[in-house]
Amino acid sequence: MSRDEDTRADSPSSSYIAPEAASPEKDGEGENPENVHQDGRVPDYLARVAPVTVPPTRIQLSLDVIVDNFSALLESVDPSEALNILELGRIHFIQRRRMRKELQALYAGLWNLALQRSFPDDYTDIFSAWLEKSGAELDPHDREERQARIFQYVDSLRQYGDADFSEVSRHLTGLLEADESHVKRISFALALYIRRIYTYFFDHLL
Questions:
Q1: Residue among 180, 177, 200 at smallest CA distance from 98
Q2: Global confidence as pTM
Q3: Hey, is 15 helix, strand or coil?
Q4: Domain extents in the chain
Q5: 3-state DSSP percent of the chain in helix, strand and coil, to 5
Q6: 86, burial (CB in 10 Å: exposed 0-12, middle 13-18, buried 19+)
Q7: 3-state SS, residue 194
Q8: What is the C-alpha to C-alpha distance for residues 122 and 116, in angstroms, rounded to an integer?
Q9: Is the dihedral of CA 189, 155, 98, 95 positive or negative?
Q10: DSSP H helices in the chain
């Protein structure tokens, strides 16, 4: 879509129309000569269009709506793809269980990063509300352990932003305690997976 088409699409349906210019056939006079300069140009006030508005960076919905939306997003993400990339089959049930916890914490960190980019004034309140609601049914020890794991990813992702997910990928592959050649082989594919999940969260914040 061209820039002109973007402007027309975002403009209000009722553009500004100068007095006496709404109907050029008024009183059977045809084109009003006052509306055209002698050199044939249309006056600026007639050519003016409504400005393109900048999307708000403050949330327009309640915290509960955004929190519940992320809970639904989490349920829609199947960690099996990541486990397959990490080559953790069913026989690696202990590693799979541990990695599922790590992936859940990673997803929370990715959502936090998307919130920070879109709602810099409100993202901490939104994230805190989700942490409180999602951990309400856990016992204090499990809740504290979960939050510590989540903030490990939050802090790590904050250092690099959404430009590079390779460090997070190397952290996860490092948990496999596998040989270096194995880690290098799957690290890049995992970084691409992480970027795809981040994009999914960013595109569906609301």
A1: 177
A2: 0.70
A3: coil
A4: 3-47, 63-203
A5: 65, 0, 35
A6: buried
A7: helix
A8: 8
A9: positive
A10: 3-10, 44-47, 63-76, 80-85, 93-118, 123-134, 140-160, 166-174, 180-203
The first and second tokens of residue 197, run together, are 């999940």
Structure tokens at 56: 């708000």
* Contact of 50 with 15, CB cutoff 8 Å: yes
Judge whether residue 17 has pLDDT over 50.
Answer: no
Per-residue pLDDT tens over the stretch 112-157: 999 999 999 999 999 999 999 999 999 999 999 999 999 999 999 9
Token pair 């929190």 in the structure block, residue: 67
**Side chain identity at residue 21, one-letter code:** A
Alpha-carbon distance 5 to 25, whole Å? Answer: 28
**Cβ atoms within 10 Å, residue 96:** 16
What is the C-alpha radius of gyration for the chain, rounded to an integer number of angstroms? 27
